[in-house]
């Protein structure tokens, strides 16, 4: 992969992030409900997406952009940028400072490059296939914890109510071993697995743009990334479990109980 692709993704993420930070700190914005009361979109999502699309398509007009707010192309592509211009909109709207810009570049359903930018902390996570994962220029790796007891685990609640009984049962099982958190930005949660803050993370029914950047970064930092049932991860199915190798199998087993 040309390094220029990663460079363009970084520029795009910083540009989108500057828009998010500006509105978060000062400006008013409009909010529209999507599927349920906590599935929201703002005009900021769209402004960030437009700027990111412009940067990527000017540099790489032959590569489709699949984005949450305005795709150049939709559906499966042999190669594409996957863009979430504001991952954590619910947090953003409620002034909870945990959200990000997420970009992933995939070829033939394989992650090739990922960038996730937290504009509040100014944390820039990035990586490319075979080259490792980095936070603000420093290489990062997953935690070395070997037990679930006392580990920092994170999940999320799917918008589809049919999945709620499953996740509630899994939460009950895991909380017999340790405490649990819901943070609200899949991209950042995957990056926090990558840098060793979070020991394990799983969630269901996410979109390709939620996961494309963070999955690459987590894998390059040494995480094992699968579906929560242990099957191979599929970007378009949207179910994910990411954890260090020593924790991964134990978390899978805990979710089955």
Question: Concise description?
Answer:
This protein has helices at residues 3-25, 43-59, 89-93, 164-174, 186-194, 208-220, 245-256, and strands at residues 31-33, 40-42, 65-67, 79-87, 100-107, 110-118, 123-128, 133-135, 138-139, 153-154, 180-181, 200-203, 224-226, 240-243. The chain is an alpha+beta fold.
Strand order, sheet with most strands? 3-4-5-6-7-8-9
Helix content: 25-40%
Ends apart, CA distance between termini:
42 Å
> Please, how many domains?
2
Assembly form of the protein: single chain
| Assigned CATH architecture of the largest domain | 2-Layer Sandwich
User: What is the makeup of the main sheet?
Assistant: 7 strands, mixed
What is the CATH H-level superfamily of the largest domain? Fructose-1,6-Bisphosphatase, subunit A, domain 1
Radius of gyration of CA atoms, rounded to a whole number: 17 Å
Assign the structural class, choosing from mainly alpha, mainly beta, alpha/beta, alpha+beta, or little secondary structure.
Answer: alpha+beta
According to DSSP, the number of beta strands is: 14
Q: Tally the helices: what do you get? A: 7
**What's the order of the H and E elements?**
HEEHEEHEEEEEEHEHEHEEH
The average pLDDT value, as a whole number, equals 90
Low-confidence stretches: 35-40
Enzyme class: hydrolase
GO molecular function, one term: inositol monophosphate 1-phosphatase activity
Protein name: Inositol-1-monophosphatase
Family: Belongs to the inositol monophosphatase superfamily.
